[in-house]
Amino acid sequence: MKTIAVGTKNEAKVAAVRAVFGGSQWRIVPIDVPSGVSAQPLSDEETRRGAIQRAKRALEAAEAEIGIGLEGGVMNMDGQWWLCNWGALVDRNGITVAAGGARLALPPDIGAGLEAGRELGELMEEYTGRRNIRTKEGAVGVFTNGRIDRAAMFSHIVQLLVGQYELFCQNGPFTV
Ligand SMILES: O=P(O)(O)OP(=O)(O)OP(=O)(O)OC[C@H]1O[C@@H](n2cnc3c(O)ncnc32)[C@H](O)[C@@H]1O
Ligand SMILES: [Mg+2]
């Protein structure tokens, strides 16, 4: 059986991979690896880099055929803080695919907390008065009135990765 290593044990992220690969011939192995970026990425660039590094490290650590990294972050545009999310898929032949997901405006008090150097996960717990938002519906769930939870959002990214990867395998890759 071939293995997909997922560079996290966060249940919302692992569920996103299961939603795409569950029931297939792939064995899914969640494995905690460092993202190599700050605990709270503050730009698209840093968030994408974290996703790629998680994918590469998970591939190596689990000796898998495919590694997937999913990273949540925030980015600032025109003074407004946005939730941003990136994913990456790597294989043993050196193909790397990356894709970005949904963006969503964060309320000003969350933005102020980020500027004070705090992590979104912690700010979301304060905002909602509930624990572990990041492994459940996520900020995206809270700020879409429950319509799109974190697993659904990341599963969209995983589909973007897999679809591009299938084409790269057929036609040859371009580098991201
Ligand atoms: O165990 P890992 O995989 O690291 O899962 P994580 O929840 O920490 O997720 P990230 O490292 O990808 O996210 C970076 C930071 O942003 C927070 N974060 C990102 N997206 C979030 C969301 O949708 N809801 C709550 N917190 C989120 C997260 O808690 C971290 O503080
Ligand atoms: Mg984290």
From TrEMBL:
It holds the Pfam family NTPase_I-T. Its cofactor is Mg(2+); Mn(2+). Coiled coil: none annotated. The keyword Endoplasmic reticulum does not apply. Keywords: Hydrolase, Magnesium, Manganese, Metal-binding, Nucleotide metabolism, Nucleotide-binding. Substrate binds at E63, A64. Binds 1 divalent metal cation per subunit; can use either Mg(2+) or Mn(2+). Its EC number is 3.6.1.73. Homodimer. This is Probable inosine/xanthosine triphosphatase. It comes from Geobacillus thermodenitrificans (strain NG80-2).
